[in-house]
User: Fold these one by one.
Assistant:
Number 1:
Amino acid sequence: MIVNPGVPQRPPQKRSTTPFLNPFTPTWNDKVPEDTLIISGVADSTQSRATVGYKGVNKGRRPHELVVGHKSSAAVIAHEMGHVMGMVHEHNRNDRDNYVRFNCHNVRGFDDALGRATSMRIPPAEAQRRPCEDREFATQYGFDSPAFIENELLSSEPGRWGALDEPGSYDVDSIMHYASYAFGDLDACLASRDHCPLLRIEKDKQGSEIGTRLIGMHKRPSSGDVAWVKKNYCWLADADCKQ
């Protein structure tokens, strides 16, 4: 693990000052283990991010990294630590529409993305769909819908996306699940669910939908999160970790 303290951004330097990169070139320093987790801090920021698991196929190209905003909450950092261990967003599951409702038009930037699609003379129905379901289109125009697109996750091959089919029941309480207001207007969402990007579906005993309710920001891992970590990592001192 390599930890870099958060400092204000400075002009680019010709020589690399990070111990995990070779001087003068943006390539991995062979003296540092390739599976090292690089932890960097960002001053005066509430935003954090992380790579999803260590991918050996990315040797020399994409380090395993956790970037922590100094003003990030413990819950946000715990969410990013889940990514570090290989966990993806729960609401990206291919069965998510049975449990939550995604209102793409409430994601910030939707109107701009829709405008771009319309300017391309795309039929109205497709113009509504593409910003929400077409990852390449959304990414090209800086729209945040890829954080919600179902049935996709970054595969082991750089730049490629594959299907997400995690076994087990849907866990709306997972720390990897977004709150209702994520990537939306917080105040508007709390004032009316009509303005929330993501809502939990309420069902009766027969399984029929009877309404929706807000999803709060989870402050600790769920029992399902803990079970996932125990399943994928050695957690007992006397356990056989060779497999």
Number 2:
Amino acid sequence: MLASASAPDAAAVRRWTGLAFLYWFGLVCALEPGNLRGGLPPDWTSEIVRLLGAGVLGSASAPALLVLARRGKWIEQALGVVLLAPALVVVSCLLAAWLLQGRWLPTPADVVSQLSANLALLAFGLAVFLGIVHLAQTRAQARAPAASPVRRLVERERGRITVIDLDQVRWIESQGNYQALRTPDGLRLVRRTLASLERELDPGRFVRIHRRTLVAVAHVEALSPLTNGDAEVRMSDGARLRLSRNHRRALVDRLDACVERPLT
């Protein structure tokens, strides 16, 4: 099975963890003059510990933010920030109690005070850093050369290795966590999502015709309109598949590219 492209590699985690330390250390340093003007006592030992602790604690959130930036939709990213911010505040209270106050646990009043004072700022800082990571990943993906479409699928399951030649695949239909690939020898099952499989295929050879179906363009024999605006696709093996109206244009364009006279 092809490796997942959604998990950040170790080098990226180390790089972003280091950048996160500098980001949070710099952010807290930038706020320090305001704290001093606000009348907070300049206990420099405590201040240095607090600054370093902010950098370490912020850098600990970097792996989670990397995963959110790469895999999550915006609603998942927002929820991740909302959940991560109070968790970091509570952990910072624990560290302050251990390192600065000589106690095992912070008092409830300390936790409430820190949540009230820093939760919004921390959530904002997390959101900004998440945006930076997302922007950097988007630009890196845009600069990266496109991967060559695969010619064969290698499926590994329970110690068994199966090689599927995509030249033999007529059409692909989603069946839950598995995808059924129709070949002259029958159905071959692979365990992955249809979307991830589609990204690996040559778009010039395979086209989505329905949310659950991909077809090999070379094996499409005819299109027949249906009364509801959809159409029926007849394949070379005799199969008749539903063509959604939303995907009709893409299939017709691909078929037009394969013949001398455009289809109507």
Number 3:
Amino acid sequence: MKLHPNHSLLKKASLAIIGLMLLFAACKPKDPDCYQSTLVLNFSQFKTRYLDTNTVKIDSFTTIIDTIQRITDSVMPAPEMLVLDEDSAYRVSGKEVIKLPCPFNPAKDSIRYRFRADTSGTQYDTLTFFYTSTPHFINNNCGYTYYYNLDRVASTNHVLDSSYIISPALTDDNTNKAQNANVIFYFKRKP
């Protein structure tokens, strides 16, 4: 039996097509990771608040700097946040940090945490976060996650002085950057 002269060419072309198919199958784009939106809290301390009577001369005009507020980040020795009023106990803790993550419950419009700046201390504050949640589709493998909009923050003032919402939007875009904080809490000045 004599083979057709194009048979070896056909065999080579078939092998090349199979090889290309395997190559393209190996080059499948990677799905993005499944992220959970989390609030990032930053804790700072009022260092000094004072009136400065220094004068600055600018082109024959005298300007008085009347108020200067200095705020520096305070490292907390062993902070702890414990979720309150939930079915399961959830604890967030750290060692010598200034930021803590704070997950939300998408089934509710608020969540409360008990906060201590140092687990060896006895004073704590209760932090309540009020938010709205929106489902967000990630991909077929991950399914849905929730994005949140932080409406307001309430806290007791045993250790903390005040809070400031920097970024109310909680999405995987800003929570994957650990350096970005959504809320800053300020400690009371130590006597």
